[in-house]
Amino acid sequence: MHFPWCVKKCPYCDFNSHPIKESTDQKAYLNALLLDWRQQHGTFGRARIAESDTQQVSSIFFGGGTPSLFEPQYLARLLEEVPHTGAEITLEVNPGTAEYFRFEDYKAAGINRLSIGAQSFSNRQLAQLGRVHQRGEIVRAVAKARHAGFSNINLDIMWGLPGQSVEGALDDLQQTIDLEPKHISWYQLTIESKTEFAGRPPILPVDPVLQEIEQAGLALLADAGFQRYEVSAFSRQGHRCRHNLIYWSFGDYLGIGAGAHGKVSREGAIYRTRRPSQPRLYQQDSQITELTLIPDAQRPIEFMMNALRLVDGVPLQTFAERTLLPWQSVREVWKELVSLELVRQDRCATTPLGLRYLDSVLERFLS
Ligand SMILES: C[S@@+](CC[C@H](N)C(=O)[O-])C[C@H]1O[C@@H](n2cnc3c(N)ncnc32)[C@H](O)[C@@H]1O
Ligand code: SF4
Q1: 192 with 245: CB under 8 angstroms?
Q2: Mutational test site, ligand 1, from 13, 125, 231, 232, max ligand atoms within 8 Å of CB
Q3: HSE on the CB side for 332, CA within 13 Å?
């Protein structure tokens, strides 16, 4: 469920987010979300792709934008409507908004996991990234979250920041580890087109520095007992993020909210769904969900682009369950990749070498 507003747009970000205004009507947005949920759940909620799938909602992710600007009572209202017994329910939090509402109220609303956008612990880097918070607010947000009873916390950190040294990146990671989150998302900063950074590119570390940051960072996380289970995701035992695992195993999900994307399977066909990005248009028009068919020929590459990001991949049979195509359609390519020691024979997964050269592995599925 997407909340499309932020205090201020960060110069590197291409998520669907708009600066929030005094006049932003949260109640109207809540009503649009409720309508959207009812419509999409009514249309797609009963579709099942594989026998092993259940119709139950296993994860709800309030993402953004900055959903920690959304009044807790409205999140509670949404959760009254969405069946969520046993679900992982995540809220993304910008530490600069930790003073807006009480974490206790998010807890009472039913949220059981927080994903906090720290990005860096260096005030200089945070300023360069245009963040609305400093280091101290990250530490306070984590403390407040714990005090409110949240134990399942993720911290987002970015690396390869403008002018960053190996020491700077490792110091960020160490400070993240010291806060004892259950999950760390460690993303390399990418310059996305149509962002402010694309227009005035900052000077990023050169390749050898990036490689050193990556190697030393992976070792630091492993030594601290964080298991890497996806290219950028690291967790303590039993704390892999269900929400992300659904994407990466090419599962079905509903995308509710302005600019939200979904993926649904119905009667042998697989579709991507998309809602209008502009909050105003979305609110006027929340009955129309744009559907795009994923053609048969494109399903293998879409599946592999997701599943092979997972360090352990997925069982071989998941391919047929989720793409609705027989394994034979990729068997020859797979055999060749096995012979090059880039993928495993027993699972739909890369070898460590294949994970390093993932782009080259994926290219084989393009034809
Ligand atoms: C929707 S934001 C998280 C919540 C909140 N909006 C915030 O920024 O604190 C999702 C995460 O994606 C990561 N991210 C966004 N743009 C990125 C980029 N250009 N390169 C790498 N990571 C990026 C950031 O770590 C960010 O926390
Ligand atoms: S606060 Fe988060 S979603 Fe908003 S602009 Fe910054 S990175 Fe993007």
Answers
A1: no
A2: 13
A3: 2
| 288 half-sphere exposure, CB direction, 13 A CA radius | 8
Contact 79/110 with Cβ under 8 angstroms? yes
304-367: which CATH topology?
A: Arc Repressor Mutant, subunit A (1.10.10)
Q: What pTM value is reported for the model? A: 0.95
Task: Kindly state if the Cβ of 67 falls inside 6 Å of ligand 1.
Answer: no
Task: Inform me whether the pLDDT recorded for 135 exceeds 70.
Answer: yes
Q: Which tens digit of pLDDT belongs to each residue from 200-210?
A: 999 999 999 99
Half-sphere exposure of 183 (CA within 13 A, CB side): 25
- CA angle 33/37/42 to nearest 5° reads 155
- 79-127 pLDDT, tens digit per residue, is 999 989 999 999 999 999 988 999 999 999 999 999 999 999 999 999 9
Kindly give the number of the ligand 1 atom that is closest to the alpha carbon of 13: 16
Q: What whole-number distance in Å separates Cα of residue 181 and Cα of residue 26? A: 30
CB of 96 shorter than 6 A to ligand 1: no
CATH of range 2-246; options 3.20.20.70, 3.30.980.10, 3.30.1490.270, 3.40.50.300: 3.20.20.70
Nearest CA residue ID for atom 2, ligand 2:
65
Considering Cα of 14, then 20, then 255, then 317, what sign does the dihedral take? positive
**Through-space distance between the first and last CA atoms of the chain, rounded to whole angstroms:** 34
